[in-house]
Amino acid sequence: SAHVPAHMASFARKFIASVTNPKTGWRTTHFWGPVANWGLVVAAVSDGMSQGPEVISVPMTSSLCVYSMLFMRFAWLVQPRNYLLFACHFFNECAQLTQLYRGLKYESEMKALEDAKKPPTDADVPGTAAKVGFLSAIGHTLQAQAMKLPLPEAARGFLAHPAGPFTIHFWAPTWKWMLSISNLMDYDRPVEKVSTMQQTALCATGFIWSRYSMVIVPVNYNLFAVNISLAVTGTYHLARKIKSEFEKKKE
After folding, report:
1. Which residue did the predictor score with more confidence, 70 or 231?
2. CA-to-CA distance for 48 and 216, rounded, in angstroms?
3. Do the Cβ atoms of 158 and 214 come closer than 8 Å?
C-alpha cells in the first residue's frame, strides 16, 4: 500500500506535464480536438440513459462505430501521438456499439409489429439496402507497386503523400465523410427524433477539428474538409431542433 501514493503522485505529475505541455497541452488544438470528441461519448451515454431507442439514427451510429475504430489507429500514428484521442475513441466505440444494438433491436421490433399487422395476402416488402460500407487501409506494399507505374507527377505526388490513399491518415477522414452523409440522409428526419446532444457534439467536433487537422503531422486537408462539412450538417440539424422548440413555446 506504501507504493500506491507514489504511483498516484507519479501519474499526477505526468498528467499535469501533459496538460501543460506548450506543444500539445490545453492551449493547443491537440488537446481541445480530442476533448470535443468526448462530446460524442457523453451524447451517446446521455441518450442511452434518458432517451428511447427511437431517437437513434442507425446509419449515423453505424458510421460512428467504424469512425472510432479507424481513428483509434489514426490517434496512434499521428504526430504527436494522441493518447487522449485514442482513449476518447475507445470509449466512443463502446458507447456507439451499445446504441447501435438498441437501435437495431428497436427497428427489428417495429418491423415485427408492422409485419404482424399486415394481411396474410400482402407481399413482403424488400428491406432497404445497406447504407454504409467498409473501407480498409491499403498497405505500403501496394503503394510501392503503384509508384512503379508510369503516372503523371501530380498522381505520384498524391499517392506518395504522407496522408495519401495508402495510409490511415487518408482512410480515417474519408470514413468520417459518412457522418456528414448520414446527416444529409437524415435531412428530413422527424425533428423529435433528432438527438440534440449528438448534433451538438458533432458540431463542436467539426469546428475544432477543422483547426486540429492543420496543425498535426502530416497536415490533413481531407480531414479539414470533412470537418467543415460535419460542422455545417450538424448546424443544420441543430437549427431545425431549435426552431421546433421555439415554435412550440409560441403556441
Report:
1. 231
2. 33
3. no
Phi, psi of 131 (to 5 degrees): -100, -15
pLDDT tens profile 23-33:
777 888 778 87
Q: State which amino acid sits at residue 204.
A: A
Grid coordinates standing for 165?
A: 490513399
Q: Give the three-state DSSP class for 84.
A: helix
In this structure, of 17-26, 45-54, 81-90, 216-225, the range with the lowest mean pLDDT score is 17-26
Residue 71's Cβ-side half-sphere holds a number of Cα atoms within 13 Å equal to 29
Q: What's the N-to-C CA distance of the chain in angstroms?
A: 63
Q: What is the grid cell recorded at 147?
A: 509508384
Q: How far apart are CA 106 and CA 114, in angstroms?
A: 12
Contact 134, 66 (CB under 8 A): yes
C-alpha cell, 65: 462505430
Reported residue count of the chain is 251
Contact yes or no for 222/74 (Cβ under 8 A) = no
Distance in angstroms (rounded) separating the CA atoms of residues 200 and 206: 10
Residue type present at position 228: I
Domain boundaries, the chain: 28-113+146-250
Q: What share of the chain is helix, strand, coil (3-state, %, to 5)?
A: 75, 0, 25
Kindly report the pTM of this predicted structure: 0.51
The answer to whether the peptide bond before residue 80 is cis (omega within 30 degrees of 0) is yes
